[in-house]
Structures are given as C-alpha cells and as structure tokens.
Amino acid sequence: MARRLVASLALLVAPAAAYVVPGASSAPQLQQRSSASPRFSAVEVFEEMPEVAPEVSGFGLAAASVAVGAMLGWLSARRQQVASVAGAAALAMAPAAGLAIVDYDAVKYLGGSDKVDINNANVQAYRQFPGMYPTAAGAIGSHGPYKSVKDIYDIPGLTEQVKGIMKKYEGQFVCLPVNEAYFIDR
Questions:
Q1: CB-based contact 161:180 (threshold 8 Å)
Q2: What does 140-181 look like in DSSP terms, one character per residue?
Q3: Cα gap 143→124, rounded to integer Å
Q4: What are phi and psi of 147, to 5 degrees?
Q5: pLDDT in tens, 77-129
Q6: What is the dihedral of CA 149, 155, 161, 166, to 10 degrees?
C-alpha cells in the first residue's frame, strides 16, 4: 500500500518538477534604441520594463497535482456517466439534419411501381425489367432528357438487340417533365 502511495505521489509530482521558473539572471538583455526616432518612445519604455515571472510554490504545485489526480479518479470511477453526458452533449451540439421534403406527385414512377419515368428514374429502377439492366438502363439514363418515350430509340450506339428489349417494355415507360431533384441522381 505504501509503495503504491509513493508511486502515485511521484507520478503526480513529476510534471511539477519539470516546471522551471526563470530566474533574474536569465532575463534577456535589453538593447538601447537610438533616440533618432521619437515615435517609438512609448514602445521603448515598455521594452525596458523587466518581466516579472509568477512565483510558483511547491505547495501550489502539489495541490494542483492532487486536484488533477482526484479529477481523473472521479472520471474513472464514473466512466459510464461521463460517457453518457459527453454523448448527450455531442448530440445536443450537433446540427440537426435538414428535412428534405420534395413534393413530387410522380414519385411512384421512380421505381416504386411497374412503370418507370425515363426522364427522372435512375438505372436501378430498370432492374424490374429482365434484360434492361445495365446496358439499356444505362443508355436511357445517360442520354436524357426525352420529349417522348419514342426518343429512346434515337440513342446513338444502340444495337438492335438492346432496341428490341426496350421495345418489349415500351408500355412500361412514361415520359414526364424533368424534375431537377431526381434528374441529377441519374
């Protein structure tokens, strides 16, 4: 027990022993300025004033070390409570997520029904149609906006096989006006 107490006190005092108070002999030597420039007279007065170092007593350092040790002991004993308070404080200080409410009547055509809007749906919405994803869906998604469903056949570089798959599901496609909130997600 005594060994632990001595070791604890040694660890608490060690940071205090490393603190060195500057003595009077270590004060920087001041140089005299020439009085040719009168605008620096007030500055020269302050430069010539000696710096006063705060006096630190052994008792003050010991008290500070004991206080730090007591605080760390208290935090260690109440780790769960401290963590809960820190988490609650972080949650309270964090900015709340903005509610992004987009009122879009045709949201059902973005992949939530059997019909897909070719101007606003992303390529994932075409997965419900076998053969459409990824080639045909990628071509439709990257070459919009379209004025009608028939415009998808004018996409450059489409093979006849891909056009045939698109033709098979043409009745499932709708062409609605572009909505900026969804068009950018393509």
A1: no
A2: HHHS---SSGGGGGG-TT--HHHHHHHHHTGGGEE-----HH
A3: 16
A4: -95, -25
A5: 788 887 887 777 777 777 665 555 556 677 788 877 899 999 988 889 999 99
A6: -20
Nearest by Cα to 11 from 68, 58, 59: 68
- Which pTM was predicted? 0.44
C-alpha 41/C-alpha 47 separation (Å) is 10
Separation between Cα atoms, residue 114 and residue 49, nearest integer Å? 86
Alpha helices in the chain, H assignment, sequence order: 2-17, 41-48, 58-77, 79-93, 135-142, 160-168, 180-183
Determine the 3-state secondary structure of 78 from DSSP.
Answer: coil
Length of the chain: 186
| 176 within 8 A of 119, measured Cβ to Cβ | yes
Residue type at position 84: S
